[in-house]
């Protein structure tokens, strides 16, 4: 019962009107009893919102660690302007002394008085008794909420007043009301209609028995079963590499095994034996490019001598070139006509052996206009700078938030659940990635029998404020699908 909209139900609206009637026309001492989660806190919030302007509210958020001196200080600072008191004195003595001559109109409203020291109930009752004895009593109304067993145990001790202490019980919701409540809360929590089947609705209503908190917890558990999901496993690089290597080995083996199995042999090219006689001897008369110039004999006319010179490794050159000028035409220089002088021939005979091509220096002497190509030097390669890898966010060591810290939160308040994981390592990575250190609470519960760590953020009084906080989250956190979660559910999960 964590939303004011629940009080629009007929039974809840009648209860609020009844309490407001008592507060406005009498000086009552009202004890509202009910199970935890039956709507006591929401009832107090609705009453505070509808109090007349003539009455000033005095409220207190209970804490089991509070001492009686602290409780007196909190109350007296709201009851009297500019108070001056001793926290060790009784509440009635300090209030009546400071309020002399001033008629106060107050409504003291404490939600969960059973979590405060026992002396508070007796001192509040003593304040009402002392106020009744004044000639002009103050207009006081005290409204306390507590567990039904606690109220039945302590209410008989409150005696001595004309208007006895009243007990108002939080009745369970009727069958039509709890069905309306279930569907309204399902729409607010955005529960998919496929999950709220007729069988599931009947099961939730049968187990709730008109208790609003049980319906809310059932809806939250229904959403929790749908939301936690496993993170995608990382790509198995090692297994993929092993698989590729095995595939390569198999293919390589098949290239050797398939020919052996098939029994085929590769066709080898046939080499024909070269047989025959040597080419015809060189004719005695050399070929001349021009008919006008006389031919110079280059080989003897005996064919045997030609064969002998072909096999000789060091052919002997004639001692002296008889012709003055040798004119020939070669295809090595693209059909150009080359004229070799006597000096060039003598230089070849003295220094270098005869080869099929002219040396570079001779070619330059014969063809002076031809440039000599040079081998270009290898270009110097500049190293390409390699970008440094992006730095990973530092993962800080987190610790689980103490349960006492979360139990101090009001059950009707809300927080925002950011994520859930089965190990703290994933939680630490999540907090480090989104830079949430010092901004979140982490508590441990159990999900399907295994430890489960939940990350929540913020303390919001209503569901609308929690939803507004969800919409203001960064896009990276919105991808995790955060959702509002009541502290009543958090406290229940802490007990697992």
TrEMBL record:
Bias type Low complexity, positions: 294-304
Residue ranges occupied by any SPOR domain in the UniProt entry: 408-486
Example of a GO MF term: ATP hydrolysis activity
SMART domains according to UniProt: AAA
UniProt keyword annotations, A-Z: Membrane, Transmembrane, Transmembrane helix
Keyword check for Transmembrane: yes
Name of the protein this chain belongs to: DamX-like protein
């Amino acid at each position: 019962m964590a939303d004011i909209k629940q009080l629009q139900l007929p039974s809840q609206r009648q209860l609020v009107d009844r309490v407001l009637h008592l507060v406005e026309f009498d000086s009552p001492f009202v004890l509202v009893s009910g199970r935890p989660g039956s709507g006591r806190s929401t009832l107090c919030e609705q009453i505070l919102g509808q109090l007349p302007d003539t009455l000033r509210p005095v409220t207190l958020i209970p804490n089991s660690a509070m001492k009686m001196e602290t409780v007196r200080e909190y109350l007296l600072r709201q009851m009297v302007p500019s108070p001056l008191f001793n926290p060790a004195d009784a509440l009635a003595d300090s209030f009546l002394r400071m309020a002399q001559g001033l008629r106060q109109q107050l409504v003291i409203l404490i939600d969960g008085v059973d979590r405060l020291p026992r002396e508070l109930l007796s001192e509040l009752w003593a304040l009402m008794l002392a106020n009744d004895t004044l000639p002009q009593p103050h207009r006081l109304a005290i409204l306390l909420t507590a567990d039904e067993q606690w109220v039945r145990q302590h209410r008989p001790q409150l005696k001595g007043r004309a208007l006895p202490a009243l007990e108002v019980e939080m009745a369970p919701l009727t069958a039509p009301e709890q069905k309306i409540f279930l569907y309204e809360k399902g729409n607010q929590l955005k529960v998919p209609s496929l999950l709220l089947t007729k069988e599931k609705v009947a099961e939730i209503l049968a187990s709730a028995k008109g208790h609003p908190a049980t319906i809310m917890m059932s809806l939250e558990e229904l959403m929790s079963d749908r939301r936690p999901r496993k993170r995608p496993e990382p790509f198995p690089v090692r297994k993929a590499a092993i698989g590729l290597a095995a595939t390569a080995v198999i293919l390589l083996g098949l290239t050797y095994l398939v020919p052996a199995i098939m029994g085929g042999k590769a066709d080898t090219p046939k080499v024909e034996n070269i047989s025959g006689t040597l080419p015809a001897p060189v004719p005695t008369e050399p070929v001349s490019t021009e008919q006008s110039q006389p031919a110079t004999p280059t080989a003897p006319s005996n064919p045997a001598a030609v064969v002998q010179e072909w096999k000789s490794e060091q052919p002997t050159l004639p001692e002296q070139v008889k012709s003055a000028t040798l004119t020939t035409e070669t295809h090595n220089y693209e059909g150009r006509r080359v004229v070799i002088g006597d000096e060039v021939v003598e230089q070849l005979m003295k220094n270098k052996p005869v080869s099929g091509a002219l040396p570079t220096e001779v070619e330059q002497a014969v063809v002076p206009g031809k440039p000599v190509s040079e081998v270009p030097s290898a270009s110097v390669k500049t190293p390409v700078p390699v970008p440094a890898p992006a730095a990973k966010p530092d993962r800080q060591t987190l610790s689980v938030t103490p349960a006492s810290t979360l139990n101090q939160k009001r059950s009707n308040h809300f927080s925002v659940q950011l994520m859930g994981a089965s190990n703290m390592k994933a939680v630490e990575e999540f907090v480090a990635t989104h830079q949430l250190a010092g901004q979140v609470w982490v508590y441990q519960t159990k999900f399907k029998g295994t430890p489960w760590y939940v990350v929540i953020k913020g303390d919001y009084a209503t569901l609308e404020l929690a939803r507004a906080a969800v919409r203001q989250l960064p896009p990276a956190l919105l991808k995790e699908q955060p959702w509002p979660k009541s502290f009543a559910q958090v406290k229940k999960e802490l007990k697992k």
